[in-house]
Structure formats: structure tokens, C-alpha cells
Backbone:
């Protein structure tokens, strides 16, 4: 195990960025100067998004492996670019590293970031690496592109549009509950083996989420341009409210159409939690939520991994969940919000 | 004083980014979606740089006012873009905020960032705001531009090129020493008034540095394109070694030509520190270090705020400081390096 202080900042950066390959023509100069240099064609919407992840706020290293953490930290940024109907191309990676980490630890973390970048065709173009007196700090900025005018925002949903969602919801949240439960159970026990049997999907959704590049590709192939789109990071409810607010519309979402995996349902049962609440407010799904014109109904109905869950209505009708018995419950944004956490 | 939890993440962001003005045509969509959207012309070098600042590693809030901190956090990123011969255009601002901060505190910090952006014509286009269980975390990414092929890197210096530096060196470091001294002196004293008389310049260089946009403008006006350029953040010595390594050259820098302000000299005397060491290794000067062909000698000699301090030589001659008595001392990178700090 090598102490980071034996390398210093520049030595560590050299080691982490060794043999970095460039896969995008838009990357002209990557790591190693005051700034990276990019060349994008003029007919491009250049997309920029950023995420800050802090230890014990966004992740708990007692059960999150560093390689998974690196992978996830990169993927959540890619997800934001896909959510604009774009393709991620470059990231910068800034790390704040406390003394308890060795060079090998940081290499693990960085390996996860590099694997995610290879998987999604993204170049690492720079960053900043520094000591932290606190916990681990990860700040990633992602740059991507969409054909000019094709970036999809949150504000374009119209009355009668269909509301679609990819994949299934609530699993990442249930994975977190499971990991937290096993953490409590393991306290003080040296040889504790956590029990994830039959719940592997939940754990994977929490620890190693994927961004839905495939859906963006399918939409393009089908010639569907969503009127509004977001990725679901804070929970379906919270994101729907964002789209409705920005688009000045309302919505109806059907409880019985919300896609939920059976492992999520079993886990909710086991923990005596409300399943729909978990699916609506759980967060960290990184699925795509989008609206399309009613005329695209057939196209999205036939799209693999996409489900129509409701429709957009006039603003004055508000945003509501239509329950199985036909009742209506107003949607509330109760998603993950570390700035509102009780315990700190 | 308002608790941040009373607003939550989205409420806080809304408040901080209220009435943000956009001053660049390249900014198409700023704050408020999954990603910002930029439009740059095709004949552009797009520049990307990022900095991570952590409390008690990069700043000490016992003597750094939050507004100054915000200003400096933005300006150090602009400096990196100027150091590429570019113009900063956009930034993303990510903040990790611990519980002891109120809404008003964060507004102060953000006000400093906004003032810097107004001053330098830069748009705030996004970011991330979250709770921190640690100290204050500031992560800024800056995007800028230079005409295509005009971005100046570190690797273009040639044998016989002149080495130039803007402004003066060592003052920010001496300002830090002064602030640290007054912090120690003030310990436990309620009504302590720090004594900065006659040393205002040092304090200002440390707390409110400026980026040298004026030098970039002057170079353009004079038709001088540097062969290599960096900003001096880690100290002259460290940056010279970077340029020499990347350009595969050596250098000679004259001790008696290094620009030093008289307040810096007085402070070094007072603290019984070696003045040249402070100027070579102090760091945080945010001055520009650049090399130009010998044929540009007259142009740079006549440039206000620029001094020729030495020349580039063949790699095998190494990098050295030529002392007042004609001796030579090999340059060493002893600049600020938090990953090598002893105390943590």
C-alpha cells in the first residue's frame, strides 16, 4: 500500500491518467494543461452538467466498493446528458482525498470511472486532485452534445402529451434500504456475510446504476423527439412536478401503470413499506421520464423498456396520481433532498 | 438568519440564481435543466478547466470573508482559461454546505461569485448544491474559448525563447503569512483588531486576486502569440519546471529580474524569510508566465505589467536560477501541494 503523500498531486494524477485513451473527435487536448481543448461543430447543442458527491451524504463506504462508486459517479452525469437527448463526450474529475486513502484506493475509484467512460464512450479530459481534511469528495462535470435545437428540455410538455418512463422504479431505493439493514446487522461482527439472496437486482440498481443510452438511441431510431425529458434522480413525483412547473401544465399518472420489479415489491413487503411511495419518491433510479405528443402513441407503446404511465393535462387540473380505485392524490415532491435531512 | 433546511435544495438554488443575467451569445440555456446548453462557432477552441476548493485545505474561514472567497474561487478558474490565451465564458458552481451556514452566508459566497462573473463577463450556467457533513466544499468548472488553433499550451517553448511574467510575485504568499500571524495573535481575544497597516496590498493579493485578462488583451493587440503559457498558482519554480518538462527544454531565470513588490520585501524582512524563495515558491500569484520568440523582444519589453525574467535553453542545460552573484541554482518544484502536507 502506497501513501499518497509519496507521490504528491502531480505524481498521483500522472498515475491515474496513464494510458488514457481518447475516443471522441471533439476532444483535442485532454489532461495535462491549464485547460482541456475541445472542438465541436457549429451545428451542435453543447451540453454541460455537474454533480458533487460527498462521503456520508451521498455514499457510505462501509458498503459501497470504491470501484462501484467511481462507476456510479460518472454514470449519473451521463444520465443527465441523455436526459437532454444528448450524448456524453467528456468529463472532468475532481477528487478530495483524505489521509486514510492509499494510492491503491484511489486507483480503484478511478478504475470505476474509467470503466464507465469506456462503456459509454466518454473521454476524461481533466480535473483537480487535492487533500481533504474531511471525507472523500467527488466532483464530476460532463460535457456532451446533441444536434442543434434537438436538446430536450423540461419545459416543452403540452396538454394531451403522453407521459412515458423507462425501466422500473423504486429498486435503487429498496437496494439502499437493504444495504443499510445489513450494515446495522453487521455492526461489531467481524465475519458477517450480508444476505442479498434473491435481491441481487436491488443491490445492483443501488450500487451500479446504468444510464439509458439505449432509450435515447431507440427514440432516435423511431423518429420520436420528446417534448420534455428528465432523468429520475430525486424520484418520479419530484421530476413530474419539475416538468409540470416548467411546462406550465398538469398531469395524471396511473398507479397501476408505474413499472415496478418484483424484487422491489418483495422487499417493500418485507420492510413493511408502501410500495407506491417507494416507486414515486425513492430516487436514484436514473431512468428517463419523458413526454411525447399523442400522435406518437403507437411508437412508444411498441418501444422496448418504455411504458406509458399517464398524460399531461391543463395546468389548472394540477398534478395527481390516479389510484387503483380511481381516486386522485396530489403529487408531492418528497424526493431525496440532503439539504432537508433531519439528521446530520 | 434563515436555516437552509427551510428552503431545501431547489429553494436555495432558486434564491441564489435569481435574476442571473446572461452576457455571452454562446450561452443558450443556463441554470434550470438537467444540463446547460451552449452554442459555440465551429472555428473555436473550447476550453474547460476545473478547481476544487475545500475548507481548511484551501481556505480558512476565520479570516477569509465569504464574499472574497466566492470571488477568488471564480477568478482562479478564469485565470486558467486566460493562461490558455482564451476568454472565460461560462461556469458551473457546485457547493457542499454544512449545517453551520445560514442562507445569508451562502448568499454572501454566491454574491462574490456573481461579482467576479460580472467583472469578467462570465455566465453562471448551472451547478449542484448539497449538504456537507464536513466543511464548505466549492467546485467550479469554467468553459471558455479561443480562436481555433490559438489556445496556448505548455509544450511549445523553444530554445532562445524569452521567459516573461506579469505583475509581481510572492505577495499572495506573504499575505497568507500575515493573515496566519494575525490569526494566532487574535486567539482568544474578543475585540482583536488585526494590524494590516502598510500591508494592504499583501492582504488583497491573498484574499482577492485578479486574473490577468488585461495581459491577454495586450498580447493580442501587440500581435504576440506566446509559444507556451501557464498561470502561476503553485509558484514560479513549479510552473517553469512544468513548461520545461512539457516543452523538452531548459531555462535560465535571473534572480534580479524577478518582479517583487516592496510590501512583499518588507514583510519577508519582518518575518525573517528568504524573499526569493517566497517569490519562487509562494504560489497563488495568478500571474501569467509565458514564453515568446526572441523576435518579439521589443514588443514584450514595452508591454505594461510584463517583465522578461530569463530565457529558454536546450534541455540538457537544465533549469536554473542565476543568482545576483552569477551563480546557478537548480530550480525545484516546492510549490503548494496539499497532498504532500505534513499536518492534516
Residues:
Amino acid at each position: 500500500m502506497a501513501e499518497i503523500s509519496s507521490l504528491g498531486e502531480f505524481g498521483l494524477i500522472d498515475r491515474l491518467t496513464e494510458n488514457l485513451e481518447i475516443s471522441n473527435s471533439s476532444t483535442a487536448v485532454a489532461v495535462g494543461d491549464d485547460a482541456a481543448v475541445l472542438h465541436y461543430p457549429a451545428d451542435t447543442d453543447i451540453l454541460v452538467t455537474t454533480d458533487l458527491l460527498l462521503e456520508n451524504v451521498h455514499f457510505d463506504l462501509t458498503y459501497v466498493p470504491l470501484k462501484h462508486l467511481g462507476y456510479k459517479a460518472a454514470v449519473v452525469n451521463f444520465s443527465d446528458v441523455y436526459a437532454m437527448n444528448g450524448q456524453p463526450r467528456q468529463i472532468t474529475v475532481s477528487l478530495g482525498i483524505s489521509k486514510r486513502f492509499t494510492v491503491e484506493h484511489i486507483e480503484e475509484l478511478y478504475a470505476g470511472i474509467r470503466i464507465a467512460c469506456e462503456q459509454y464512450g466518454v473521454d476524461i479530459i481533466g480535473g483537480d486532485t487535492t487533500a481533504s481534511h474531511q471525507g472523500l469528495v467527488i466532483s464530476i462535470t460532463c460535457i456532451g452534445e446533441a444536434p442543434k435545437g434537438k436538446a430536450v428540455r423540461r419545459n416543452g410538455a403540452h396538454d394531451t402529451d403522453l407521459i412515458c418512463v423507462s425501466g422500473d422504479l423504486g429498486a435503487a431505493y429498496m437496494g439502499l434500504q437493504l444495504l443499510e439493514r445489513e450494515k446495522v446487522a453487521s455492526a461489531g461482527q467481524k465475519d458477517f456475510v450480508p444476505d442479498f439472496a434473491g435481491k441481487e437486482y436491488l443491490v445492483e440498481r443501488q450500487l451500479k446504476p446504468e444510464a439509458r443510452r439505449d432509450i435515447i438511441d431507440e427514440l432516435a431510431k423511431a423518429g420520436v423527439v420528446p417534448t420534455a425529458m428528465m432523468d429520475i434522480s430525486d424520484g418520479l413525483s419530484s421530476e413530474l412536478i419539475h416538468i409540470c412547473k416548467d411546462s406550465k401544465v398538469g398531469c395524471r399518472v396511473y398507479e397501476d401503470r408505474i413499472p415496478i420489479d418484483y424484487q422491489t415489491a418483495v422487499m417493500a413487503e418485507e420492510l413493511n413499506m408502501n410500495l407506491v411511495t417507494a416507486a414515486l419518491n425513492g430516487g436514484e433510479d436514473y431512468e428517463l421520464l419523458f413526454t411525447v405528443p399523442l400522435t406518437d402513441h403507437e411508437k412508444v407503446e411498441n418501444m422496448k423498456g418504455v411504458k406509458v404511465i399517464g398524460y399531461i393535462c391543463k395546468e389548472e387540473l394540477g398534478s395527481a396520481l390516479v389510484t387503483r380505485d380511481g381516486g386522485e392524490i396530489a403529487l408531492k415532491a418528497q424526493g431525496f433532498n440532503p439539504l432537508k435531512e433531519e439528521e446530520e
